[in-house]
């Protein structure tokens, strides 16, 4: 799209975001902590491409009203359809099936990467976001599911989330299927509506869920107020069976499907308790419903319980920051034989936001670079400036040599101020002749300059600036940076 001047208008696609340095570093820090836990549990990394053949991904997203049913797709030059992955699990299933004879089962793996959803964007709802998954393929017993729940609890604590501020909630799709049998629901669309109603328990409470199980619910609470969400159309008796179930009363549910799921949940509960994870950390919760349709057994969610300020400073409950479950049929789509699998996915961006707002992430910020200023543009001088810059870098200190128009020195200090540079290195012709260099503490200088009242005082003062021999440059800069760090830490206490 061009504007009236014929220039292409710079614009970000809807539902996508640009990421900046602080966010990237915070996410890297968080992923490093998650990776450490996954590695400790014996999981190894693997990476799959962002594109897969569309039929390999399968159609598990419910967005029938969107192009390509919720995925971004294109046709290759061989007329085969490719799609951007919408999660990291379906590509893993393809990878396992394609390399089945070379992979050692159980296959324990983790991976992080971006996924893409062709959904209508909205506040906090993006079309590209990062996930960090761990999966075990080839383990049929629910011990693998219990281990996933324990590992997610350990991840929460490795990220600095205190016990009591998170919980891993566990349910079972077999239990939910047993509920569907009991109320006579076999239609997939109606089943999905019932599951979505159950999933709204935290948001709307039992009365709101009851409305969604019946005719439907008005957003405003009364007929005609706000938008209307059509319900599942259950009878009052069947709706009550569902409500009793999510309240923990499953006395009327005795079909074999339900009992099989309940037995698996009991085993998971026993394994977690035996390993020292109490119900405050991992708990059975009949209201847990995972959205993707490929889950076949236990399902679980990691939920933040702490009240956390959002980007606007409003105190909110972040809720779920990850989830997963057993998907025994996903690899089998390619193999034609049962291949059990279970896994967990962390919503990286959402969790990172919560951690930053809790003050648990981004505290170890990377300092802006020391600025080596340019006073003269001749070959000898430039060589010296580059030498200083490399000496600092080789000593492990972030540093850059000014690359703009060096003839206006004031612009260099303005640039350093905008960058937040802690120190400036200055060498003019006189200093170079004497083998010296000036070091300016920009943090202390900024503080002291606020006390200077006249231009004359400013000209006479060399605020927080001192001279050292060239070979003492690195040690002198280290000392200034150490003093600045001590002052920051003292102010934070």
Automatic annotation (TrEMBL):
It is found in: Cytoplasm. One of its GO terms (molecular function) is histidine-tRNA ligase activity. Pfam families: HGTP_anticodon, tRNA-synt_His. It is an enzyme of class 6 (ligase). One of its GO terms (biological process) is histidyl-tRNA aminoacylation. Residues 34-368 form the Aminoacyl-transfer RNA synthetases class-II family profile domain. Belongs to the class-II aminoacyl-tRNA synthetase family. Homodimer. This is Histidine--tRNA ligase. The lineage of its organism: Bacteria, Pseudomonadati, Pseudomonadota, Alphaproteobacteria, Hyphomicrobiales.
């Amino acid at each position: 799209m061009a504007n009236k001047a014929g220039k292409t208008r710079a614009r970000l696609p809807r539902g996508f975001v640009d990421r900046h340095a602080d966010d990237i570093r915070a996410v890297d820090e968080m992923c490093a902590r998650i990776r450490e836990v996954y590695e400790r549990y014996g999981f190894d990394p693997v990476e799959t491409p962002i594109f897969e053949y569309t039929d390999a991904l399968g159609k598990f997203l419910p967005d029938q009203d969107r192009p390509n049913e919720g995925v971004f797709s294109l046709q290759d030059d061989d007329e085969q359809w490719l799609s951007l992955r919408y999660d990291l699990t379906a590509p893993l299933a393809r990878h396992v099936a394609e390399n089945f004879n070379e992979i050692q089962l159980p296959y324990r793996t983790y991976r992080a990467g971006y996924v893409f959803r062709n959904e209508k964007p909205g506040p906090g709802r993006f079309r590209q976001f990062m996930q960090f998954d761990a999966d075990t393929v080839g383990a049929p017993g629910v011990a693998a599911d219990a281990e996933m729940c324990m590992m997610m609890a350990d991840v929460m604590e490795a990220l600095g989330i205190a016990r009591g501020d998170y919980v891993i909630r566990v349910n079972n799709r077999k239990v939910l299927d047993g509920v569907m049998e009991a109320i006579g629901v076999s239609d997939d669309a109606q089943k999905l509506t019932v599951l979505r109603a159950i999933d709204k328990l935290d948001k709307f409470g039992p009365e709101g869920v009851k409305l969604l199980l019946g005719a439907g619910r008005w957003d405003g609470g009364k007929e005609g107020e706000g938008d209307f969400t059509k319900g599942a159309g259950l009878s009052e008796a069947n709706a009550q069976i569902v409500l009793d179930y999510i309240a923990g009363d499953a006395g009327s549910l005795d079909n074999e499907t339900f009992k099989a799921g309940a037995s698996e949940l009991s085993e998971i509960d026993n394994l977690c308790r035996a390993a020292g994870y109490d119900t405050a950390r991992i708990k059975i919760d009949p209201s847990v419903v995972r959205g993707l349709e490929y889950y076949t057994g236990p399902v679980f969610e990691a939920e933040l319980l702490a009240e956390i300020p959002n980007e606007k400073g409003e105190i909110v409950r972040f809720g779920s920051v990850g989830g997963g479950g057993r998907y025994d049929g996903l690899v089998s789509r390619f193999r034609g034989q049962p291949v059990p699998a279970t896994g967990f996915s962390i919503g990286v961006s959402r969790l990172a936001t919560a951690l930053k707002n809790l003050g648990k992430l981004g505290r170890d910020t990377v300092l802006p670079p020391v600025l080596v200023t340019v006073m003269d543009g001749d070959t000898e001088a430039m060589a010296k400036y580059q030498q200083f810059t490399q000496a600092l870098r080789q000593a492990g200190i972030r540093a850059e040599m000014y690359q703009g128009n060096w003839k206006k020195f004031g612009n260099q200090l303005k640039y350093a101020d905008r960058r937040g540079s802690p120190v400036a290195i200055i060498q003019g012709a006189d200093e170079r002749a004497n083998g010296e260099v000036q070091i300016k503490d920009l943090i202390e200088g900024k503080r002291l300059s606020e006390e200077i009242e006249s231009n004359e005082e400013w000209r006479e003062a060399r605020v927080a600036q001192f001279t050292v021999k060239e070979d003492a440059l690195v040690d002198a800069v280290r000392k200034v940076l150490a003093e600045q760090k001590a002052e920051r830490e003292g102010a934070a206490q």
